[in-house]
Amino acid sequence: MIDHNVILTSAQLFEGLGYNMYDFDLHYWRLFVGEYNVLTTDPHEKVYTIKSVLLHPGYNYTSLENDIALVITTQPIA
């Protein structure tokens, strides 16, 4: 986490999902914080909607050069 609503992550997480990386529908995406077991709802789990995902402009999926992305949430992460 690098700001109250910005997460630094790997760009390869958004690779190979069958659509253009720069045009995917964030309506279906959520950021889960405090999730331990995906099969149950954990008591401290919080869910955030995603405003945007920014991949490094020099990201190369073959060499994984510049393999970073920013996930920006619509609300601050508590």
TrEMBL record:
GO biological process: proteolysis
Pfam families: Trypsin
Gene3D superfamilies: Trypsin-like serine proteases
Domain Peptidase S1 intervals: 2-76
Gene Ontology molecular function terms on file: serine-type endopeptidase activity
Protein name (record): Peptidase S1 domain-containing protein
Species for this entry: Dreissena polymorpha (Zebra mussel)
